[in-house]
Design goal:
heterotetramer, A: mainly alpha, Serine Threonine Protein Phosphatase 5, Tetratricopeptide repeat, B: alpha/beta, Rossmann fold, Hypothetical Protein Tm841, Chain: A,domain 3, 2 domains, 6-stranded mixed β-sheet, 8 helices, 33% helix, binds adenosine-5'-diphosphate, binds magnesium ion
Chain lengths: 212, 328, 328, 212
């Protein structure tokens, strides 16, 4: 169990996420082929592989610069809707990390929350719109409630992952209000949103790393 | 799929190299896929537009004196990322700020707005306008709403002329917004287009079927119907436009736009029918544009665009443009 | 067949009505299917071209200041009759004689020459030039020989500028002939076109097959081959042109022409490849034209045209043109 | 048997030809579909029907003006290659009819010959090129030889028709050098030229009228 995360930790988590995404090509591609234009896996994979390829450079950076660099890199490499959403999330989050050497559980919440808010603002989306927001929103909400509850950090992390999973699953029965699935006559009902899934992978891998 | 391409992955960059080689007035910034003017005028408001590729001559063909300063290309039918757009903004900026002309697609909106935020961190004054001229889709606050299609070209033209005349960012934005407020379009498609990277059509239409209101990426329209005469197509499209906006007893600019593979012959036949209808309704046509202005690869079909003009807009529409996509 | 037309029999006249409605500088003479300039200049050599319809913007789109004075349309892919051409000559004549720019097809040759004879009976001085730029076909005295294709547009441009500058009929003819002597084109087709009155394609090509050298009416080319990359198409077409005419170490005008349904994106990719090859061969490109200049209804494919320039031709090429089909 | 032809006679012949062409739609259309673009019957029929429709006007004209008017009418109505060829033939022939009230057998030859020459010049074609010229050339040649032979007029006319027929038939085995059949790889060998057939109809109907 880790209590704080520094640059080295964050880079490690990013590498683990890259691997997780790489391994789930068909599932994610199929989901976006059904609900969107089928490129979500390719977009995310390209972005995270790029992150892996600049590992050395990232390890030299302080946390704030790391987040900014990761944001800029994801933004330009992922492209499309998710590129700018992740880019904005990381770039916005970097502001709360200026001068910070290590993130404790409160900082981690602040970072996740500012990323969530950036995404919601950028995408003009809210929970229930059948997007990646549904995963992150539930995760951040559960995290916050657990913090307010003064739970053990391990419990907080567990609650976060569980909420993220529920958020992801909940997109299945939602009607799309944002993204391309909106243009389908059935509004995508019956299918999980691909962006909600890749968001879940990231939260889950972060949690798992912290719990080690 | 038979296309004059090399690798599907390289179509955008090779196209932009080809544009740079054809047009001595522009320069291509590789990697960020930006085409910008070679000659800059100090303290002119910069105009940037862009979006997915596959809509040629939009957007790189509208870079030139009297229209855009820079055009930013994404991959085929995919929004460019904010870093690319930022480069476009930087190239277009000559001290008087930059106006972004965005078509109303959520990807474009997010990426252009993000780029705006990045540019403002660099202390460049940036404003945006969003074009949503396609009356096929109902406007709504719930979803992204109406799409931006061929009417965007009029926004480039009007804002471009205004900027060239030395107006401020505020004024240029106002002229662009006035154009947006007064422009409406309606389209139809007859055959699909093929994304180079996909290699097969994204939808199918019977040999006897057309889709009224289909978008410029093959997004669903409002009705699949059996094929009709040019006169009937004209009636359907014009009616839908006039139902949405009252152009009666006004003077308009008319654009008859081809989606890519519809011959000019057919666009002129459609023009004849559309103008007959408008004349009957007492709508006066001030200027007509017939051609491929906002395409969807090799889709066949067309769109009709009306822009209501006042004296200011007439003057700006008549202003010289040296952009290869729309010479005035 | 899905086309934006009414009656197949009326496509030409309705198209020309649509052109008249789009272009305030021209007037349509119905029945004889002539488009001519509204404003005439006294004692300017008149320029008339024309041929079958279906090649838009050729030929009516080239009527305007700096290019043609009148364009005469036949039915789709059929030569206009002499009486129509005579009307074109009469409209174009302002006292200094008229030059007919004819593409080398036997029907066009016969009809234009007959019209010339008729005009001479009316005491109008008429000269002719015949464009035969298509290197796909061998020149021969036995048959009609080489076809006239996209290079014709350069002849309109050069002769048009020369006439506008006040040159005599003799001089305008000389400039036109110099252009013809120095222009070569080579094309290829990927999908067929459909004559409105026929309703089905005139030939078939496999989904994997292209025809090198096919004419702008679907006439046979020199080779059916499997589809290739843009680079390979460029190599094949440029080689055939350079084998026929020595452009080495000269300055040229380059036209990358689309046959109708090939997207501008692909034409620019081809332009990139063609210019790379020409650069390697030390051929300098003075000016580039990329677009649909001489089409074949909705055929997909392209042609490459090279025109060797000297100082006079450069000057004439750069001269203003207000014709909608080629704005310079 | 007629010895001379005046305006009324010519107009009658033209009407008979119009009927003959009208009746042979499929045969002529098929021949041009094989060798050309399939419009030769439609072209010729349109032209001759137009002539029939202006009969009253034509009857008012002297022979020279009649030929000129018929030429201009055929030229603009037939269109394509045959329109200008027939137009030129009639218009050129009109010159030898100025001041002439009736054509005798020498004038008829002169008219046919000047028409032939106009066509050959306009089309840049010669006998053997697989065109309508092959019919007319043989007809005019036989007529001339018969005149030089001082044959009875009836014999001259018979010889002319026979030669026209042979000329028409001879196009079957020729390779095309003019017209669209030139672009066929087999150059049209094995098929009679449609223009040669319609030319034969005209010559035969003229002959039959004279023989009445
Ligand atoms: N406006 C939005 N706000 C939040 N998330 C969005 C929005 N639009 C799309 N998304 C998310 O992006 C995902 C699709 O991403 P991707 O396929 O990479 O981009 P694109 O839609 O441009 O092809 C969707 O599954 C959804 O989760
Ligand atoms: N150069 C020529 N000289 C003489 N006759 C010709 C020539 N070209 C074509 N023809 C004749 O014209 C006929 C075809 O006429 P038609 O079908 O009416 O015109 P088009 O070929 O323009 O469609 C041919 O069968 C041939 O007899
Ligand atoms: Mg996608
Ligand atoms: Mg996408
Ligand atoms: Mg024919
Ligand atoms: Mg014909």
């Amino acid at each position: 169990m880790k209590n704080v995360l520094n640059t080295k930790d964050v880079v490690k988590v990013l590498k683990i996420i890259a691997k997780r995404i790489e391994e789930n090509k068909d599932y994610i591609t199929d989901l976006d082929a059904i609900l969107g234009d089928g490129d979500h896996w390719a977009n995310m994979n390209m972005g995270y592989q790029k992150i892996v390829s600049i590992e050395e450079e990232l390890l030299e950076l302080n946390l704030a610069d790391l987040f900014k660099k990761v944001g800029m890199t994801l933004m330009s490499t992922i492209g499309g809707s998710s590129g700018v959403l992740y880019g904005d999330a990381f770039i916005t989050a970097h502001k709360s990390l200026i001068g910070v050497e290590e993130m404790d559980k409160f900082k981690i919440h602040e970072v996740l929350d500012s990323g969530l808010n950036a995404m919601m603002k950028r995408g003009n989306a809210k929970p229930g719109d059948k997007t990646m927001i549904d995963t992150l929103y539930q995760a951040v909400k559960a995290y916050k409630e657990s913090l307010d509850n003064n739970d053990e950090f391990e419990i907080t992390i567990n609650k976060m992952v569980k909420a993220a999973e529920e958020g992801m699953e909940s997109t299945k029965e939602m009607e799309a209000a944002k993204g391309r699935a909106f243009y389908r006559t059935d509004k995508g009902v019956g299918h999980i949103d691909p962006g909600a899934v890749t968001m879940y992978y990231q939260i889950q891998e972060l949690a798992q790393y912290i719990m080690l | 799929m038979k296309k004059i391409i090399n690798q599907p992955d390289n179509v955008v960059s090779e196209m932009l190299m080809g544009i740079e080689k054809a047009n001595p007035d522009v320069v291509y910034h590789s990697g960020v896929e930006v085409i910008s003017r070679k000659q800059k005028k100090d303290n002119k408001v910069g105009l940037v537009s862009g979006g997915g590729s596959g809509h040629e001559p939009a957007h790189a063909g509208y870079v030139g004196y009297g229209m855009l300063d820079a055009a930013v290309s994404g991959n085929v039918f995919a929004s460019p990322s904010p870093d690319r757009i930022l480069k476009g903004i930087q190239e277009a900026d000559s001290g008087a700020g930059v106006l972004l002309i965005i078509k109303n697609y959520s990807g474009d909106i997010m990426n252009f707005n993000m780029a705006k935020d990045l540019a403002q961190m660099d202390d460049i004054k940036v404003e945006t306008v969003v074009v949503k001229d396609d009356v096929a889709v109902e406007e709504s606050t719930y979803s992204t709403g109406r799409r931006g299609i061929a009417g965007t070209v009029f926004v480039h033209k009007i804002a471009g002329a205004k900027a060239e005349k030395g107006a401020s960012l505020e004024e240029v934005k106002e002229a662009a917004q006035k154009t947006i407020d007064n422009v409406r379009s309606m389209g139809m498609a007859m055959t699909p287009c093929i994304l180079p990277a996909v290699g097969k059509p994204g939808f199918e239409l019977d040999d006897n079927e057309v889709e009224i209101g289909m978008g410029i990426h093959g997004e669903p329209g409002i009705e699949r119907t059996s094929k009709k005469t040019a006169k009937e197509y004209a009636e359907i499209m014009v009616k839908k436009i006039l139902d949405d906006y009252d152009y009666s007893s006004s003077e308009v600019a008319l654009m008859i736009n081809g989606l890519g593979s519809t011959p000019l012959m057919e666009l002129y036949i459609l023009n004849n029918e559309v103008q007959n209808i408008l004349k009957d309704k007492g709508i006066k046509i001030y200027k007509t544009f017939v051609g491929n202005y906002m395409t969807a690869l090799e889709m066949s079909g067309c769109s009709v665009t009306l822009l209501k003009l006042d004296d200011e807009l007439k003057d700006l529409l008549d202003f010289e443009s040296k952009a290869p996509g729309m010479r005035v």
